[in-house]
């Protein structure tokens, strides 16, 4: 057990004699400095000498976790819990590991145990709340987040968790407020390099210059750029700072006087505001979501070019269904929101249909292993940027996609799109509904069970099959 | 003076190596100083003509040791070695004659014929073309072109040369007529072929080869009784000739009299004075045993046939060459590069190609027969033109590089329309063949392994349907093993090399599909067999063709499919070829680890 080995002398390297805990402390220091091999050597020697020493097992789990070996991390942590069943930190850590692997049943058991063992630990409540969100127990998630905040009021992660749960429930006013904590999250990049600038309060600035910042991912930028023209009515001197990829979309919005995709190109300004802060400033609630769809349009010359290309590629009389099955792999929730192309198999049984892959990034390679019945045209290989994507979306009959930027783009263009959502979706898709007040042409297909795509994919296939009749 | 024992050349010419293969060709040129040897040469020619071969040989060797480039002596020695069936030495000697005097028509024709006989068709073609260049009115040169191009599956060009040979000859020479008949059979023109065979045999009924060719033609045309009658006629002429028996066995096999066919093959084996069956006979025996359900014996026969082929100097898999080509293609065809490579445009009023892709024995012939049963589609069969374009590309694009790197010249101002020129070359060759029938707007190209050049095809024909026929990889490997095939860098002699090449090509296809936007449809042989109509409808629709019921009865398509599959595609769809590998699992064990990942990727499994 844990106490047996403490204070023992363990000679791990020739001629040097230290306590086991001193060795583990050194291993911990190596882990912190990402000297994983050095840490591994120490931990494995300690475990060789003391195979059931819980702190060593825990250290081995942390090391495996840092090395992105979740199965190995679970293996060590499970052993640590056998050695020291009442150590709260072990339960707090293992519940998050189980959650990240989609093992929500085990996660919630250990999450509750962690809270029971350490009721004053805000982190334990927060972890349990995240698990409840993933289990779509949103009221419990809200309660856990509030409990964590009662113990640690400045815990940004708990505020953000609370925001996501409230927004998902359609409780926008408090949700937007809590959502502002996103910039205080650990490892959150700073919004802008300038110091001492004023955050815009949403009031008219007829003479001042306002800088709007495309602060989140592509999807958020496309979703929130609908507010730009309204902002411009309040602040005619409107500067937009956003990535170059988003320029062809954001620059279509009325009222931008200057667009910069590099900080050094940003002229002087008086106040700033992230795009994702606009719903709060405009007091958006479920009834007042602005949906001026379409607010993004494809370029006519590119539409003509791609129409010609698609006419050459698609047999006459075939319906075209664009597909995207994976998002950016570095996205925090990618495990849940992305799938493999193979899971879209029911779509390949559609008659007189060509699947058009718009997939970009590493997942696009899966198109090479598609041997389904409906032909698949890997158009992603020829797409250069979002201007191409917009032109193609204009032409395709339908799009089926997981929750990625393409959904927002098609939605903003008013194109028909079926969205495949994970069991616990992002807050913007709300709950228990198949439509989206943000995008009128979007239809939502939700997982009925965590990680189970078969239901929503079958429903989309059935819908498309019906549409051909 | 002591004579040094000469170090004989390894080629078997009988000359010393320093006077043969190790010598510099430049030193061979005849010089005036060797004039004093001419009486010896005349003597050798005379002795040879009189059948005194030993003396003729000794004289030639003596002359050539002193004057290695003496043409007369080389010619006589070549004929002696050829008669002895010392084919390596014969080839060396006649090649030397041609190198020393490229305008020597006799030597050029001999060399082309010898290379043809050894199966080196591409090399033979080059010399046959030279023969036509040197002697355009010599019927022998045209007959050679006819034989070689017919064998290279360009029968239309072959037909041209046979007809020219007949015209130049001025009379109906029976062998030439039989050659032309064989050519026409290969084009599926059975009635014309039959008439020519009748004419040939009428002129000279004593030529065994003509009767055998005719019997084969009748067998192909499914007139088995006529084939049998012809073989009876041949038997009367040359009783017990193994070739007659082999043909008979093939006919028995096609009429499903497997026992009889097998008994004939066993008779051939017994009568061949201890040498046993040849490669083709053994493979035929294996296929018969397979049909009879005697799978272990069948596999033993396949293995024996393949082993014999290798022992007899048959070509072996060019692994390094194949791998290097695939690596270069992968390095060139990348999405980032292809985004800035221009594509050829589409000629609207021209017949358009449909590419049927697939490893040999995957079912491409069946798909071609299906498509070409459509009134709008003509069968192109195995067109060599994509490979030809790849070979010609450096010249056509004026590039110092080879294919595929030569495509970099498309970025030059004077070559930016180069792909249109390559496309036009391909279409021109198709037009020359005359394969597109009246009323047809499409033609098929089912050259096996054209998928190796999928990238080039998609650049030349960006909107051409690419129909890739898939079949269980173990069935493909087994089927290739049970047939004599030269496709795929000669991979067919060993199970392992077939599997290696298959994986290499499938990985390349995956690369193309990852990096390029292709008008690509994968169809499974097994699906077509199991549920024909929806799959045929799908293929036709993908090729922008309206459904035609005739396509479901492809076995009634009178067109003769030239490839090894011809006997199968004239039968209705049947299940036996699906998952045949299950009977051979233990024999296929060595290749399962090689194929397993690809089997899984394609969505197949391995069932016992």
From TrEMBL, chain A:
Q: Which SMART domains match?
A: TPR (SM00028)
Q: Which UniProt keywords apply?
A: TPR repeat
Q: Name one GO molecular function term.
A: mannosyltransferase activity
InterPro entries membership: TMTC_O-mannosyltransferase, TPR-like_helical_dom_sf, TPR_rpt
Q: Which domain of life is it from?
A: Bacteria
**Example of a GO biological process term:** protein O-linked glycosylation via mannose
Repeats (TPR): which ranges? 122-155
Q: Does the keyword Transferase apply?
A: no
> Is the keyword Hydrolase assigned to this protein?
no
Matches recorded under PANTHER family: PROTEIN O-MANNOSYL-TRANSFERASE TMTC2
Protein name (Swiss-Prot/TrEMBL): Uncharacterized protein
Q: Which organism is it from?
A: Asticcacaulis benevestitus DSM 16100 = ATCC BAA-896
């Amino acid at each position: 057990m844990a106490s047996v080995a403490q204070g023992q002398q363990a000679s791990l390297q020739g001629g040097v004699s230290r306590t086991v805990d001193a060795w583990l402390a050194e291993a911990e220091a190596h882990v912190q400095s990402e000297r994983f091999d050095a840490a591994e050597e120490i931990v494995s020697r300690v475990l060789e000498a003391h195979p059931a020493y819980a702190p060593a097992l825990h250290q081995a789990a942390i090391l495996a976790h840092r090395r992105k070996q979740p199965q190995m991390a679970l293996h060590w942590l499970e052993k640590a819990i056998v050695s020291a069943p009442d150590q709260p930190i072990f339960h707090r850590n293992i519940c998050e590991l189980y959650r990240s692997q989609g093992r929500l049943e085990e996660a919630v058991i250990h999450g509750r145990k962690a809270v029971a063992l350490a009721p004053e630990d805000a982190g334990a409540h927060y972890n349990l709340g995240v698990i409840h969100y993933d289990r779509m127990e949103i009221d419990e998630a809200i309660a856990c987040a509030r409990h964590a905040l009662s113990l640690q009021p400045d815990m940004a992660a708990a505020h953000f968790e609370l925001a996501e749960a409230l927004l998902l429930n359609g409780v926008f006013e408090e949700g937007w407020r809590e959502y502002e904590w996103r910039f205080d999250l650990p490892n959150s990049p700073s919004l802008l390099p300038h110091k001492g600038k004023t955050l815009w309060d949403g009031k008219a600035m007829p003479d001042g210059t306002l800088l709007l910042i495309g602060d989140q991912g592509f999807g958020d930028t496309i979703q929130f750029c609908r507010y730009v023209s309204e902002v411009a009515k309040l602040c005619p001197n409107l500067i937009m700072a956003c990535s170059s990829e988003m320029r062809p979309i954001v620059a279509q919005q009325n009222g931008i006087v200057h667009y910069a995709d590099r900080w050094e190109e940003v002229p002087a300004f008086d106040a700033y505001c992230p795009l994702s802060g606009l719903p709060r400033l405009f007091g958006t609630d479920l009834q007042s979501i602005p949906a001026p769809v379409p607010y993004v349009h494809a370029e006519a010359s590119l539409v003509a070019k791609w129409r010609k290309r698609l006419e050459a590629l698609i047999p006459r009389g075939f319906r075209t269904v664009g597909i995207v099955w994976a998002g950016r792999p570095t996205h925090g929730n990618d495990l849940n929101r992305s799938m493999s192309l193979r899971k879209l198999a029911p779509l390949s049984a559609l008659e007189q249909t060509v699947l058009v892959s718009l997939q970009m990034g590493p997942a696009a390679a899966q198109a090479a292993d598609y041997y389904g019945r409906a032909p698949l045209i890997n158009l992603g290989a020829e797409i250069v940027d979002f201007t191409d994507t917009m032109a193609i979306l204009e032409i395709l009959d339908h799009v089926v996609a997981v929750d990625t930027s393409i959904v927002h783009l098609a939605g903003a263009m008013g194109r028909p799109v079926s969205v495949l959502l994970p069991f616990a979706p992002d807050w913007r898709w709300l709950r228990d509904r198949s439509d989206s007040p943000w995008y009128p042409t979007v239809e939502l297909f939700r997982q009925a069970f965590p990680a189970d795509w078969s239901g929503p994919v079958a429903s989309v296939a059935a819908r498309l099959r019906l549409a051909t009749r | 003076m002591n004579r040094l024992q000469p170090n004989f050349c390894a080629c078997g010419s009988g000359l010393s190596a320093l006077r043969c293969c190790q010598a510099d060709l430049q030193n061979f040129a005849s010089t005036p100083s060797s004039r004093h040897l001419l009486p010896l040469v005349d003597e050798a020619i005379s002795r040879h003509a009189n059948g005194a071969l030993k003396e003729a040989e000794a004289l030639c060797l003596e002359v050539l040791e002193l004057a290695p480039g003496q043409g007369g002596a080389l010619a006589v020695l070549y004929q002696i070695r050829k008669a002895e069936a010392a084919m390596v030495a014969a080839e060396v000697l006649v090649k030397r004659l041609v190198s020393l005097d490229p305008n020597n028509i006799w030597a050029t024709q001999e060399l082309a014929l010898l290379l043809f006989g050894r199966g080196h068709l591409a090399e033979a073609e080059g010399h046959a073309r030279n023969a036509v260049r040197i002697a355009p009115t010599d019927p022998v040169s045209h007959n050679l072109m006819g034989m070689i191009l017919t064998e290279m599956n360009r029968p239309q060009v072959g037909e041209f040369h046979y007809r020219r040979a007949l015209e130049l000859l001025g009379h109906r020479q029976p062998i030439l007529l039989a050659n032309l008949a064989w050519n026409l059979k290969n084009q599926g023109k059975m009635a014309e072929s039959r008439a020519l065979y009748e004419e040939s045999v009428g002129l000279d009924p004593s030529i065994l080869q003509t009767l055998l060719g005719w019997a084969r033609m009748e067998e192909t045309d499914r007139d088995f009784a006529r084939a049998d009658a012809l073989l009876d006629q041949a038997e009367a002429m040359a009783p017990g000739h193994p070739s007659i028996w082999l043909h008979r066995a093939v006919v028995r096999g096609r009429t499903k009299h497997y026992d009889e066919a097998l008994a004939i093959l066993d008779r051939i084996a017994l009568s061949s004075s201890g040498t046993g069956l040849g490669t083709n006979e053994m493979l035929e025996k294996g296929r018969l045993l397979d049909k009879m359900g005697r799978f272990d014996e069948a596999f033993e026969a396949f293995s024996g046939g393949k082993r014999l082929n290798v022992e007899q100097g048959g070509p072996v898999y060019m692994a390094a060459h194949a791998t290097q080509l695939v690596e270069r293609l992968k390095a060139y065809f990348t999405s980032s590069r292809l985004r800035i490579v221009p594509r050829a445009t589409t000629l609207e009023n021209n017949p358009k190609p449909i590419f049927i892709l697939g490893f040999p024995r995957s079912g491409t012939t069946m798909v071609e027969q299906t498509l070409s049963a459509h009134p709008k589609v003509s069968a192109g069969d195995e067109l060599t033109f994509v490979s030809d374009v790849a070979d010609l590309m450096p010249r056509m694009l004026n590039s110092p590089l080879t294919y595929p790197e030569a495509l970099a010249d498309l970025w030059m101002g004077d070559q930016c329309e180069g792909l249109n020129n390559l496309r036009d070359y391909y279409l021109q060759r198709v037009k020359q063949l005359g394969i597109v029938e009246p009323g047809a707007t499409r033609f098929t190209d089912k050259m096996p392994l054209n998928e190796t050049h999928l990238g080039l095809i998609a650049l030349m024909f960006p909107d051409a349907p690419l129909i890739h026929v898939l079949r269980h990889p173990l069935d493909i490997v087994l089927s290739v093993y049970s047939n004599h095939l030269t496709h795929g860098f000669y991979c067919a002699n060993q199970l392992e090399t077939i599997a290696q090449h298959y994986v290499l090509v499938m990985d390349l296809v995956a690369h193309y599909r990852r990096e390029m936007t292709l008008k690509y449809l994968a169809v499974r042989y097994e699906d077509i067999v199991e549920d024909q109509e929806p799959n045929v409808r799908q293929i036709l629709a993908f090729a922008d063709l309206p459904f035609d019921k005739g396509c479901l009865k492809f076995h009634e398509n009178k067109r003769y499919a030239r490839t090894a599959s011809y006997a199968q595609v004239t039968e209705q769809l049947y299940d036996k070829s699906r998952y045949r590998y299950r009977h051979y699992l233990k024999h296929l064990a060595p290749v399962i680890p090689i194929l397993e990942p690809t089997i899984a990727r394609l969505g197949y499994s391995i069932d016992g």
